[in-house]
Design goal:
Elements (H helix, E strand, L loop, with lengths): L2 E4 L2 H7 L9 H5 L6 E9 L7 E12 L2 E6 L14 E5 L3 E4 L1
Antiparallel strand pairs: 1-2, 2-3, 2-6, 3-4, 4-5
Length: 98
């Protein structure tokens, strides 16, 4: 079974500032439990092809820059996670806020 990692949105924003936007520090600082955030999950597999998926995660715990959430989508490609799974992530993984 393949595994996944979470993309670093801050790094993508630095590399592509005109096309890859991220939430402001003010928006991220205002996040609370039950808010939805979008993360980029990237499947790690044996082939050279990686397939990123952007999916929503519902926040269930916040500890400074560390978050725990529940996956609010069923992945299309990534088989190692499913709707309802617990996801641990950091502030730099957040690409969007609903």
């Amino acid at each position: 079974m393949s595994e996944y990692y979470l993309e670093n949105a801050f790094e993508l924003n630095k590399e592509y500032p005109d096309t890859f936007k991220i939430p402001s520090k003010k928006e991220i600082d205002s996040l609370k439990v039950n808010d939805l955030v979008k993360l980029i999950f990237v499947e790690e597999n044996d082939s050279s092809e990686t397939i990123p998926e952007r999916m929503w995660v519902k926040i269930i715990e916040i500890n400074k820059d560390n978050f725990v959430g529940i996956l609010d989508n069923n992945p299309y490609y990534i088989e190692s996670i499913k709707y309802g799974d617990e996801i641990v992530f950091k502030v730099e993984n957040i690409i969007d806020i609903y």
